[in-house]
Write a structure and sequence with these properties.
Layout: E1 3-16, E2 30-41, H1 53-56, E3 60-64, H2 66-73, E4 82-84, H3 97-103, E5 107-111, H4 121-138, E6 143-147, H5 154-159, H6 166-180, E7 183-185, H7 188-192, H8 207-220
Parallel strand pairs: 3-4, 3-5, 5-6, 6-7
Antiparallel strand pairs: 1-2
Amino acid sequence: MIKKLIAIPLLGTTVFSACGNLDSEKQIAKLDYSSTMFEKESSPVSNIDTSTFRSVFKTSVFLGDSITEGLHDLDLLDEANVVSAMGKSIGDAHKDVEQVVNQKPKNIFILLGLCNLIDTKESAIAQYTQLLQEIKEKLPDTKINILSITPVTLERAQKEVRYQNIIDFNEGFKTLAKNERVNFIDLSPIFKNNKDLYVKDGIHFKPEFYSIWLDYLKNQLK
């Protein structure tokens, strides 16, 4: 059985926050991260059959931050289907539109906003509106799916107040999706039945989250 070593962010050494616009004039708060290695066997990371994910999402693109990066790092999707980077905010994603457009996807799944919690909800929505309109102009036949910001653990939210705004931001994104006539997918049901998905930082996820996530989205496409 082949084993592969992959780095995922965990609590540890101080570096710049995984969330924040490097071009912004705002001072970005620092978070504690380090890299730990975990073994990923060639077998599925949960009891979900992951073998169909590549075919199901072959004509899809996932646009997001460090959470989205795990889809490729864990070999669940091809690199071409994942456009992501640590610390990517909604504003940063404008730089990725051409890359997304070149894929000519039938579906786009956007998971952004976690790195905008340092801003106001109104600012995040304004940036998201511009991003959506740019994508719709260049890909008028593509189905755009806004994904809700994933929750953090209670301990993390108590440590950093900005994470207490996730529910409010998601309500704003849901209204935005309706106004822009795009789809909104609420990811919160994933966490109601799966409590132990987080790594130590209380923000990022264990490998089993990703197969659960894709299986949930696969069902949303039906």
